């Protein structure tokens, strides 16, 4: 098969094990990455047969390389049409900004649709996070997140029902909760603690988001406080790892 380029910084350089032997599927993956750069977003790959012959590998090896690139969000399969170069991942800043702000800053139109809107009794952990007593009423709003009508995430938000008694009846779940809290309620969001981890979606989550359960997900836990240090919300956000990435700025 053709020899992958070994220029510093290229994927195959980072993927070479100490013994120097590169798995054949990984070499194919590197060649496909170069091809993806040449083709550009939305362009279909040549046929599996053609590329397997060009790279001098079996179709099984070729499919393994393609499958990894699909999971990573570099390629997308379309039933009955073929495999295409995926669009760039969406980027959300790890900062105290809303999902709406993050998407619109990239020229993407955000939207949401409601899955769950309910009152619930806070367990000990939720009560501690929200600064209320165990058993006190809490609000739970669960929404699917969309970007240009594409489902990319699932968000669950928890708030104190006593602090926001009218929220479920007056808040439009298709809009930004941060905008409602700041503009309509007068809350000043001042501080947030956020933790990010990788997980696999549950069958229910995968169905709601419309993704393959095998695709890695990015899970964010956020606890937001107002300018008096009082907890405002606890949020659990699940994003498709093949369509989303996060960015932050670090300063000394």
Automatic annotation (TrEMBL):
The lineage of its organism: Bacteria, Bacillati, Actinomycetota, Actinomycetes, Pseudonocardiales. SUPFAM superfamilies: Chorismate lyase-like (SSF64288), Winged helix' DNA-binding domain (SSF46785). CDD domains: WHTH_GntR (cd07377). This is GntR family transcriptional regulator. Keywords: DNA-binding, Transcription, Transcription regulation. One of its GO terms (biological process) is negative regulation of DNA-templated transcription. Residues 21-88 form the HTH gntR-type domain. Pfam families: GntR, UTRA. GO terms for molecular function: DNA binding; DNA-binding transcription factor activity.
């Amino acid at each position: 098969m053709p020899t992958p380029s070994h220029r510093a910084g290229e994927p195959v350089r980072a993927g070479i094990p100490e013994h120097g032997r590169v798995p054949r599927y990984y070499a194919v993956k590197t060649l496909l990455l170069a091809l993806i750069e040449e083709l550009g977003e939305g362009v279909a790959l040549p046929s599996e047969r053609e590329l397997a012959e060009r790279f001098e590998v079996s179709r099984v090896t070729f499919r393994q390389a393609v499958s990894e690139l699909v999971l990573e969000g570099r390629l997308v399969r379309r039933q009955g049409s073929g495999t295409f170069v995926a669009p760039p991942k969406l980027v959300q800043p790890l900062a105290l900004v809303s999902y709406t702000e993050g998407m619109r800053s990239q020229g993407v139109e955000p939207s949401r649709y409601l899955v769950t809107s309910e009152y619930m009794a806070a367990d000990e952990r939720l009560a501690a996070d929200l600064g209320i007593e165990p058993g006190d009423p809490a609000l739970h709003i669960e929404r699917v997140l969309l970007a240009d009508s594409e489902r990319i995430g699932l968000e669950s938000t928890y708030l104190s029902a006593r602090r926001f008694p009218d929220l479920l009846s007056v808040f439009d779940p298709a809009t930004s909760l941060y905008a409602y809290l700041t503009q309509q309620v007068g809350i000043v969001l001042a501080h947030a603690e956020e933790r990010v981890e990788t997980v696999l979606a549950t069958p229910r989550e995968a169905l709601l988001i419309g993704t393959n359960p095998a695709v890695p997900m990015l899970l964010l836990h956020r606890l937001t406080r107002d300018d008096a240090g009082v907890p405002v919300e606890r949020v659990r956000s699940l994003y498709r790892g093949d369509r989303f990435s996060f960015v932050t700025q670090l300063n000394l």
